[in-house]
């Protein structure tokens, strides 16, 4: 489940029209959401509120043997009107899941952002400030986010902790998104790591497509049905003289596609010799299945993870045993554009090739968002439950 | 005397390697591993090679059928090798990310993909050089401790030799781990192995080691028979404060119930040890404890307060002044010995003789030896002053090498005679007591005057030849001995006062082995002059603790004192006889060759 502050940050992106998904770092976000989800450990309570459209606070309390907690504050210069409380929020916004990628859009022209008032330019760049203090651990997280331009965003995150080398680290990330392609430049103080990431979307170019207004000339749906993207990343640690390279490809269907939505990704690390292929398909309206295969050509090590995501909706007849993922019967394709507010819960499950099972049930109970999860190791018969946890969240 | 170290039979035992491998594997996996190592470390091959290490005996503190303690200088450049198997993370970005906080992680997509590679590391071409303290006791097994970091260099060859970054990293990490292994794990391994080796009482011994991983110091030295009382001795020594408190603290905890030490005291002791580690000048005051430094000063001040005992104590003072200004610990040792040794009152004659007197009957032979050298080599100067003030360590040390055995024998005799049940001597009282006794005796025997001094010295010579095994003309003073000892104790002079009292234990992992370290503590204190003295003290902890702390309260104590008084009187008589005889002899000789009277004599004339 998304923490409230992450949710607010996403809302900030939406408010400032920043496309998070158009980044190489999120190339395989779907597979990660379906297969690498975190199951809660112990008991976690979160109470958050957006006291004003610009200011949010959140208090967390976790009990896992010892009680620890965190206090976080967030300030946004842009009024975040799109943030909803836990009773109203759409679950698909509050839960990581299959990413329905939107069509890329042409970024705003810089001139669009200019606001003139009496001959003086009064517009300001939107900024988000966020800080979080973990109490007994004495760890401080800080985030500075600034939309420098319609195509540019600066993100500086820092962690301060006495146990870390040099007392903490700072990561500076400059992101550029032109729609057709995006690039990111980063620097981390930890090992003086510099990095560059780029993503290029083949096919449809929103900048050139603009003259043809979609309303006037209907675009060929087959052309727009999917999008193929390719990207690469390169890191180099100045201090430890080591680096890393990877390249990746993704094909995903777009909302205009008439068939089942699917996403395929392939990432390659040529240095390490690592291949990773993931395939996710939305089988019906409320079920997503995903598989991922890892293979290393040097060590011949391989790994296979299977996962699924079942969305449970309010009883609308037809799907009685909806909670049971195995006997889920899709109620048929309903017309698009239906609001997702009838979703009451999501069941996520994954299984690895060494019979490690992760289960997560996320849903809403009255005004509370909750998630219950467990990690089960089937190889250990005597004590199969490795972790069990519940997380409860209340936002107002 | 010869030692025969057998290297090959050790390796011939087929089970030895498997056992050693298991223990090494366990030891290597105990400490937290660096993130680059992602699996357990397995020792697959272990071979000690055919070349034994070069051992140079620096000092033998204790020698008997069932026990041995010595300090060696070890040099090793043999063909032993060790092969380890583990799995490492070959992607440096992955290891970096595993330690970095996730909030600031750059979140690479696939650049941090893991690649675990089975790694085989062969460690060979070991170059070791260090000082080894070896303690063997049949009951307690073998304890082997490195005084310094023995690892000079080694060659790490692995599957990653072609990648320089990983190679360097591995070399660095392995050296770090090995240093740790040598100084902390290896002693434990060897100890456990030896316990298994000798088999006997392994269960009890292991349970012992579980409870208290170090055997008692006095127990170790004085044999198992004394083990019951060892704690009391410890108590005595602790109260006396001379012994380094930290090691005593640990041995304390083992034998006495831990609740005898309040948490406050423990805290203080911890602060004390910390202060030595950190060179902090702050030392907490501990009640009922006499610091060695204080003991020294009190000894120094004693002669002035009790003039009658001047001759006796004075020597110890001068001695301490010259030889060991930098090692005050020795003074306490010497002075305490002067009190404790039964024949302490024997030599109240002149300054130099008092040296012998302080150190008891064994010292007689020493002085004789000294004199002999002086006689042959020099003809001028005050022997007294030479002996007392600027004794080169080489001479004394060479002597002690020769005398070790005999003294041990004597000490053992002393143990046998003096062992009767002795309870804890309450502190301070006894010192007065013993001192009083000493005072009583000494003036009787000290007619004073340097004529008599010379006489007594010769007398001692003669006496020793009759009574004690003749002064070995053998002790071939190995020229290196002093140098080695200088090597061992170089830093002591640089150390601050307090830390020089409890030398070097700090550097050793006291947690595991302090009990077994403790024996070494004394020998290292007494590199030159006093190793024999200290060996006495170790051979005979009873005598030692009694003498130092002394309790006149118990009946046993009194009985012992009576016995000692009788003994002293007897010896005094003998001594007097001898002295007279010697005076005659000397006179005769003087008459015979009046040309070159010994310098001291000359002076006094």
Short description:
The complex is a heterodimer of chains A (396) and B (605). Chain A is 8% helix and 49% strand. Chain A has 396 residues and is mainly beta.
Please give a handful of descriptors for the protein shown.
heterodimer, A: 396 residues, mainly beta, Porin, globular, B: alpha+beta, Bactericidal permeability-increasing protein, domain 1, seven-stranded antiparallel β-sheet, 57% helix, 12% strand, elongated, disordered C terminus
Describe what you observe in this structure:
The complex is a heterodimer of chains A (396) and B (605). Chain A is mostly beta strands and 396 residues long. Chain A has one domain (4-329, 344-395): Porin, CATH 2.40.160. Chain A contains five helices and 21 strands. In chain A, the strands form two sheets. Chain A has a 19-stranded mixed beta barrel. In chain A, strand 4 (116-117) and strand 5 (120-121) form a beta hairpin. The longest helix of chain A has 12 residues, at 4-15. Chain A is globular. In chain A, 34% of the residues are buried. Chain B has 605 residues and is of the alpha+beta class. Chain B folds into two domains: 8-96 and 109-203, Bactericidal permeability-increasing protein, domain 1 (Super Roll), CATH 3.15.10; 292-492 and 520-604, no CATH class. In chain B, 57% of the residues lie in helices and 12% in strands. Chain B contains 25 helices and seven strands. Chain B has helices spanning 8-12, 14-30, 92-99, 164-198, 202-211, 217-222, 227-240, 245-255, 263-277, 292-305, 310-323, 328-340, 351-358, 361-377, 383-389, 393-418, 429-445, 450-466, 480-488, 497-501, 510-525, 531-539, 541-548, 555-592, 599-604, and strands spanning 42-47, 54-63, 67-76, 81-89, 116-137, 141-146, 151-158. In chain B, helix 2 (14-30) crosses helix 4 and helix 12 crosses helix 23. Chain B is elongated, with a radius of gyration of 28 Å. Chain B starts with 7 loop residues before the first helix and ends with a helix. The model of chain B is unreliable at 201-259, 299-552 and 597-605 (pLDDT under 50). The chains are: A mainly beta (396), B alpha+beta (605). At the A-B interface, strand 8, strand 9, strand 11, strand 12 and strand 13 of A face helix 3 of B.
